Amino acid sequence: MDSNELYTGHFGLTERPFTLVPDPSFLFWSKQHKRAYAVLEFGVLSRAPITLITGEIGSGKTTLVQKLLSQMDDSVRVGLLSNVQGDRGELLQWVMNALSIPFEPSESYVTLFQRFQESIVKEYAEGRRVVLIIDEAQNLSSEGLEEMRMLTNINANKDELIQLILVGQPELKGIVLSPGMRQLAQRVAASFHLEGMDEPTVRAYIKHRLKVAGGSGREITPLACAEVFTATKGIPRLVNQLCELSLLYAWSSNHKRVSVKSVRSVLEDGVFFASNVMDDEAGGERDVNERQDDLTRPLFLRAGRRVDTQSKKTG
Ligand SMILES: Nc1ncnc2c1ncn2[C@@H]1O[C@H](COP(=O)(O)OP(=O)(O)O)[C@@H](O)[C@H]1O
Ligand SMILES: [Mg+2]
């Protein structure tokens, strides 16, 4: 039995309330998350050529994308690209891969493009729309974004054949609004920027997650919630991390509830912020390794990570 199991039992919880695993049952519909989701749905249904969702790291963008994927039916062919960087040609391969369009990596760009076009025209003829979601789109170069825009240019009878959903960190908005990106910006039909949650929302969020995990929602006091809000600026991922550590601390001191004191102990000990810094560094290092690794990998596998929409689909 590890300490995680011990603390859940101690608080009368049946599972860990603040894991970072995307679990739809933990989804909390704050006003903002609802709005962002509505924009995503509207984008898809209204055949918006481009929908743009931005927000701080950990604000809930990918969570909403996963939710959207889980709601899509057979009338939509959807591809998800996560964290792709790449040159001309390579990006198209990633896109085709995400949409499960078969191709040979040795084929020329022209042939690939033809294949791609044929495939989406066929989808259109069969009454399906094609949606391509690009998560962490701020990592695409301007050229990459421009290439994506070109893909949305393919149309038939004035209908868009492919819709783009661009999701990324706040700088993505700046990239899209920059002078060179005007053509892209003009095609953005719907957009939303996710901010951190405000204090009452953080309180409700914490309560929601505690309840889903089998608790009463009172395991973390309102004052402690306020402290969590201040330290995290209401960013869900940080709220989760701080709450989990605070539960551990309160458990180790044999407290029945997480008080503001437990939260402060975590903050004073530096475990919370240290863990964030370490997360960032680990992320950076991974990128570097991936890049170094790039040269030894087949072209098709380079520069990015494909997230399989099928296996990532969550209820
Ligand atoms: N509305 C929400 N309801 C429940 N949990 C959320 C919500 N938004 C974010 N989270 C949690 O916060 C964490 C970070 O969310 P994520 O979607 O990965 O953020 P982003 O993609 O913006 O970096 C996830 O572990 C997720 O469980
Ligand atoms: Mg994300």
TrEMBL record:
Transmembrane segments: none
Matching Pfam families: AAA_22 (PF13401)
Gene3D superfamilies registered for this protein in UniProt: P-loop containing nucleotide triphosphate hydrolases
InterPro entries for the chain: AAA+_ATPase (IPR003593), AAA_22 (IPR049945), ExeA_AAA_ATPase_DNA-bind (IPR052026), P-loop_NTPase (IPR027417)
Chain ranges of the AAA+ ATPase domain: 47-198
Record-given protein name: AAA+ ATPase domain-containing protein
Annotated source species: Aliiroseovarius zhejiangensis
Upper taxonomic lineage: Bacteria, Pseudomonadati, Pseudomonadota, Alphaproteobacteria, Rhodobacterales
